[in-house]
Amino acid sequence: MDTIVIRGGAVLDGEVTVSGAKNAALPLLFSTLLTPHRCVVRNVPVLRDIRTAVAVLRHLGARVESTADGHEIRVEAGAVDRSEAPYDLVKTMRASFLVLGPLLARFGRARVSTPGGCAIGARPVDLHLAGLQKMGARIRITEGYVEAEADRLRGAKIVLDMPSVGATQQLMMAASLAEGTTVIENAAREPENVCLAGALERMGARVSGAGTPEITVEGRPELDGADVTVIPDRIEAGTYMVAAAITGGSVVVGGARGDHLDAFTAKLREAGVTVREDPSGVRVSARGTLAAADVKTMPHPGFPTDLQAQFMALMTQAAGTSTITETIFENRFLHAQELVRMGAEIRADGNRAIIRGRAALSGAPVMATDLRASVCLVLAGLAARGTTRVARVYHLDRGYERVEEKLRALGADIRREAGTA
Ligand code: EPZ
Predict the structure, then answer these.
(1) Are strands 181-185 and 214-218 parallel, antiparallel or unpaired?
(2) Which ranges of 32-86 does DSSP label H, i.e. alpha helix?
(3) What percent of the chain stands above pLDDT 70?
(4) From atom 9 of ligand 1, which residue's Cα is the shortest distance away?
(5) Which of 396, 401, 389, 400 is nearest to 374 (CA)?
(6) What is the radius of gyration, based on Cα positions, of the chain?
(7) Which residues have C-beta within 8 Å of that of residue 88, sequence separation ≥ 6?
(8) pLDDT tens digit string along 250-308?
(9) Of the four listed, 59, 242, 249, 252, which is most buried by Cβ atoms within 10 Å?
(10) 372 CB less than 6 Å from ligand 1?
(11) Hey, which CATH number is domain 24-220, 3.65.10.10, 3.50.50.60, 3.30.450.20, 1.20.210.10?
C-alpha cells in the first residue's frame, strides 16, 4: 500500500480544478442498468471507486467503454444477463448496493450482497429495503444476500425515517420503471441526488421535487439512453478550500459550485477565512488568525459530514476552542486520535469532539481509516512542522483524483512512496 509523504510549512497559492463528484458519478453509472440503450456519462473522476463500479457493471454483462483519459464512460446494458452482485464486489464498495433497485425494476429479480458496515458506522440498508417492499418487492435476506423479486414494481408513497442519500437514490431509480407514481417523503436533498434526478429525466422518467424533501417520480415501461454530465465534487472542493486556509494561502478552486457549499462556506467565513465566489469557482484566502467555529453535521443543505474531518484539522489551528458534533454517522472521529498523535488537543466523546486550537502540529507517521479521515491527515501534514507519513492511502485514491499532484501544483511539498506500508 502506498504512503503519502508531506513536509509541512508551504503556503499554498494558485489554482486547482475540481474533478467530477464521486458520489454523483456512482449512482449515475448504476442508473444505466435501467435501460438497454446506450448511455454516456461525462466528467467522471478517475478513481478506484469508479473502476469498481465499472467492474460491477461488466460483471452483470453490461458493455462499458471509457475514453483514454477515463473522464467519459459509455455503458450499454442491453446485454445484461445477470442480476447478482457478489459479496466481493459489494464489500469493496458499498455504493454497489445501488444496483439492487435498477436490476429489480428492470428484470423483476435481483440478488445483491448486503454491504455490511464500515469504519464510520453500521451503515444499514433498512430504508432501501422498506421502500422497495412498499413498491411491491418481495424481499428476503439469506447468507448475507438480499434476494428481491417483483413482477412489476408499483408506485407508492414512501416516507423515509431519515433523509438517507443512498435510499433516496435507490428508490428514485426503482420508481423510474415502476407502474404509476412514487412519492418519496423526507428525501435527501444532496446535489448528487439532484444530478441523478436530472439523468433519470433525460432517460424519460418524470422526476419532480429533487433537492426538496418530497420527490415525485412517474415511472415508465422502458427508459431511453441518456448523455449526462457529473456535477463538480463539492467535497473535493471543500477539501482544497481547507488546504488554502490551513496553510494561510490563497487558492482558486476552479469549477467549484458555491451554491453546493453554502453551509460549509458560512463556517469557513465564521472562522475568519475569506471566501469569494465567482462564475469560474471559489477563491479562498486566509491571511490572519483563524477563529474557532462550532460545527454540527446535518443532511444537505446543512454542514456536510464528508467535510467534518477536514474542518477538524483546520480547527486545530484556530485561536480558541471549537466543538464538532457528528449527527450522521456514529463513529466518524477516527481521525481525531491520529491528529492527537501530531500534537492536536482533541477530546472526542460519543458524537462530540472538543478541539483546543493553536496546536503546534508536528509531522508523524499516521494511518488513514476512511476516505475523509485520510485527507484530513494530509491537510494536517501541510500545516505541521516536519514530515508526516500517511499510510494506507488506498482510502485516499478511492475519492481524490491525483491529490498529491493537485496539492504539489499549489506549492505543497508532497510525494507518494509506492508500496511502503
Ligand atoms: C452517502 O452515503 C455518501 N456515499 C457518503 O459519503 C456520505 O457520507 C453520506 O451519503 C451522507 O451524506 C456515497 O454517496 C457513495 P446515508 P450513504 O444513507 O448513502 C443511516 C464518502 O466519504 N441509514 O445518507 O450510505 C446510515 O447508517 C462517503 O464519500 C440507515 O439507518 O449515506 C447513516 O447513519 C462516506 N438506514 C445515515 O443514515 C438506511 O437504510 C446516513 O446514511 C440508510 C442509511
Answers:
(1) antiparallel
(2) 48-59
(3) 100
(4) 165
(5) 396
(6) 21
(7) none
(8) 999 999 999 999 999 999 999 999 999 988 899 999 988 999 999 999 999 999 999 99
(9) 242
(10) yes
(11) 3.65.10.10
Q: Any idea which fold 3-16+233-417 has?
A: UDP-n-acetylglucosamine1-carboxyvinyl-transferase; Chain (3.65.10)
pTM higher than the cut 0.85: yes
Position 248 scores a pLDDT of 97
Helix (H, G, I), strand (E, B) or coil at 169: helix
CA of 163 to the centre of ligand 1 (A): 9
The reply to whether ligand 1 has any atom less than 6 angstroms from the CB of 305 is yes
Neighbours of 134 (CB within 10 A): 18
- Confirm whether 3-16+233-417 and 24-220 share one CATH topology: yes
| 364 touches 7 (CB < 8 A) | no
Q: What angle do CA 79, 83, 87 make, to 5 degrees?
A: 125
Give the chain's count of helices (H) and strands (E).
14, 24
- At a CB cut-off of 8 Å and minimum separation 6, what does 259 contact? none
Beta-bridged to residue 297, according to DSSP, are 303
Which amino acid type is present at position 103? Answer: L
Report how far ligand 1's centroid is from the alpha carbon of 235 (Å): 14
Q: Which residues in 40-76 are b (16+ Cβ under 10 Å) and which e?
A: ebbbbbebbbbbbbbebbebbebebebeeeebbbbbb
Q: Does residue 27's CB lie within 6 angstroms of at least one atom of ligand 1?
A: no
Active site residues: 118
| Per-domain boundaries in the chain | 3-16+233-417, 24-220
Length of the chain as a residue count? 421
In 3D, which of 262, 176, 260, 168 has the Cα closest to residue 214?
A: 168
Q: Could you give the CA distance from residue 166 to residue 188 in angstroms, rounded to a whole number?
A: 8
Exposure of 180 by Cβ count < 10 A (0-12 exposed, 13-18 middle, 19+ buried)? Answer: middle
Q: What whole-number distance in Å separates Cα of residue 213 and Cα of residue 160?
A: 10
